[in-house]
Design brief:
Blueprint (H helix, E strand, L loop, with lengths): L4 E3 L2 E3 L5 E6 L10 E6 L6 E6 L5 E3 L7 E6 L4 E6 L8 E7 L11 E5 L2
Parallel strand pairs: 2-10
Antiparallel strand pairs: 1-3, 3-8, 4-5, 4-9, 5-6, 7-8, 9-10
Amino acid sequence: QVQLVESGGGLVQPGGSLRLSCAAPGSIFSIYVMGWYRQTPGKQRELVAFITSEGRTNYVDSVKGRFTISRDNAENTVYLQMNSLKFDDTALYYCNRVPAVHGYWGKGTLVTVSS
């Protein structure tokens, strides 16, 4: 079982920015599609952005134009730059392959948007 390690969350005011990072072992990273997911209490985990090994990206409508996913294949790291944060972005954020692999879920990193 491999766990991914997310970091970079925190408390931010509406309109603010955060950059999330996810470190992954090379064996599960380099050739796979990687994504950022988020979950709030009582809701299903949602895929908000993904990036292919070639760098093609896709986003859920609610974050388009505000979030940017990127990856550093040499460092086996995937990032999520989040700008213009809204209250509704408050969630526990996780990274995983796409489709997600159950055994890869890490502990996530908490993003709280509050004034």
